[in-house]
Amino acid sequence: MIEPNNNDKESTTMNIKQILSEKIAAAMVAAGLPEGTNPAISLSNRAEFGDYQANGVMGAAKKLKTNPRELATKVVAELSSSKSLDGIASNIELAGPGFINIHLEQQWLATQLNQVAQDKFIGVTQRGVNQGDDVQTVVVDYSAPNLAKEMHVGHLRSTIIGDAVVRALEFRGDKVIRQNHMGDWGTQFGMLIAHLSDKLAGDEVAETALADLENFYREAKVRFDNEEGFADRARADVVKLQSGDEACAKLWQQFIDISIAHSEEIYAKLNVSLQRSDIMGESAYNDDLSTVIDELMAKEIAVESQGAKVVFIDEMANKDGEPSVFIVQKSGGGFLYATTDLSACRYRSGKLAANRIVIFTDARQGLHFKQVEIVARKAGFLPEHVGYQHCPFGMMMGDDGTPFKTRTGGTIKLAELLDEAIVRAATLIKEKNPDISAAELTHISKKVGIGAVKFADLSKNRTSDYIFNWKTMLSFEGATAPYLQYAYSRIQSIFSKAESAKAGAVDNNAVINIVEPQEKALALKLLQLEDTIDAVISECTPNLLCNYLYELASLYMSFYEACPILKEGISDEVKASRLALCQVIANTLKQGLDILGIEVMDRM
RNA sequence: GCGCCCUUAGCUCAGCCGGAUAGAGCAACGCCCUUCUAAGGCGUGGGUCGCAGGUUCGAAUCCUGCAGGGCGCGCCA
């Protein structure tokens, strides 16, 4: 193969789509198409159309107003004469109005897979290795529970979706700075401090008084609404707190510490990577808020209106030309979450040097973040080159399809949900495996139960609302985390059998041969990990990784039925090859699930 | 009133910067455990992609309108 000698610059990738894209883009240019035309490589959806297909010619032909079929003929001819896909594709054919169907060479596929098998990152190129694929500093704002209350099911999505995206970014090699923008500074804290103060005066210990935050909040609220003088005390305490009163600050700190501890318990149980050092609560921006307002006023971005300071956003005017209103300071001088979020923009792009800021909150805050971005950009808090991405997610709906609201005391605490999942898992595991030891049961049911809850949520499209249902969430059949964990365990079981029988333990240097259709399907799937990770990262959509892993596990299950490994009559070569294939699958499942924050186990 | 989101199989959902005959899981039905873990595999049935137009070689996907549901819109976060 004669090619310009630029091997030292050429990327070393095992990514099929990327390789095909480069080759076909080159052929397209050689065939007279403009530089930069997207070859639009995608997986073929039917075997007769090959493994991959290039659809880009048709779109390009449309733009150039030429015949797509003729153009595609030229590209195919170019591919053939340049021999650029020799050894990679076994057959390239033109179909329909201008599809280019690519059948991959089985041997080449095996070569790529063997390379992946030797790669520490299972074929996922690390940022910074290739030119133009630089390491990004990504600030990710997620979880952000309100510390006034206990975490409930509504906090689940931000927490686990954000954590999955964070881990995906890190696995690809980006620098991630987690920011847990906890709600620790609202007016409600006046009421809570006042109530806590009374409890402590009554000889209670803070830890005990705050053992049940939900209860504590309710008590305080009742007093606020009904008790003579309490509301005034509460309001006074907010003012004192915000102006730096030491006694109030101490009470507040006690409250916050205990509430954070509650959250940390949940994080630990959920296997979420957030640490205390990731907390950058609303209170942390307090000292900067007046500066933010001063700057907005000085730049004449904000103006006074009805006693408050607001920004009129013309960019978001309605049809009548009335600008969108964004209040940045209350008429009484108080600040709002708008102010805090503006301050956060400046901190993140400035001090944290973010290239990209990603925020996970529910969809109801969409308007707010649109406004924040416009104002922050105008004020220079958010330079042009810094990406700002609000990643909304849908609401939690009840079984009847209406919003899952706080019915008569009906919020489900996250802690209780997780415990129930674990109990249900334990029941099921015991059924399947009556002889299991108590210790192992505890160990496994935790991973299975938590995994199931997380997968149920993570596997759904982030943006749509989703129906909360105990039964489907905690059913461990079908496309669920336990299915994936089970696939992993089956592989481990084969490994341990192979070793105990000395039947040929896994040889990391064994060559994987692709013979059976199930093996080929697995090879193709395994080589798509990087594409999947990249899609997860760019759109912040972990459900794509869930789909990928489920498909991988499903292909493995078929392989498991069709391709025996340790049974009679399997040659050493085939055995070694299939064991090595199993190893790559296991590594991929484990790594993929780890990104989702779901654990695997050798036996279940 | 204005704005944003959603509507795909009985149920829960994929697919959405246009691609070929719209896919899974659950539920239903039929097979497969003396054989590497049946939390499994193989198969069958099940669809006017909310409705109506438009754009074009091609629309679940893009545009317009309509209906239904959800959410938001000056001092909560």
Question: How would you characterize this protein structure?
Answer:
The protein is an alpha/beta fold. It has five domains: 16-104, Gyrase A, domain 2; 137-182 and 281-397, Rossmann fold (3-Layer(aba) Sandwich), CATH 3.40.50.620; 188-270, no CATH class; 414-473, no CATH class; 481-595, Isoleucyl-tRNA Synthetase, Domain 1. It has 21 helices and 13 strands. The chain has a four-stranded antiparallel beta sheet with strand order 1-2-4-3. Helix 5 (156-172) crosses helix 19 and helix 14 packs across helix 15 (438-458). The longest helix is centred in the middle third of the chain and has 25 residues, at 246-270. It binds one RNA strand of 77 nucleotides through helix 2, strand 9, helix 13, helix 14 and strand 13.
Secondary-structure topology with pairs:
Elements: H1 16-30, E1 41-43, E2 52-54, H2 56-64, H3 68-82, E3 89-95, E4 99-104, H4 106-118, E5 137-141, H5 156-172, E6 175-179, H6 188-201, H7 206-209, H8 213-226, H9 230-242, H10 246-270, H11 289-298, E7 303-305, E8 308-313, E9 324-329, H12 337-351, E10 356-362, H13 366-379, E11 387-393, E12 396-397, H14 414-432, H15 438-458, E13 466-467, H16 470-473, H17 481-500, H18 517-526, H19 529-539, H20 543-562, H21 572-595
Parallel strand pairs: 5-6, 5-10, 10-11, 12-13
Antiparallel strand pairs: 1-2, 2-4, 3-4, 7-8, 8-9
Helix pairs in contact: 1-3, 2-3, 4-18, 5-19, 6-8, 6-9, 6-10, 9-10, 12-13, 14-15, 17-20, 17-21, 18-20, 18-21, 19-20, 20-21
This protein binds one RNA strand of 77 nucleotides through helix 2, strand 9, helix 13, helix 14 and strand 13.
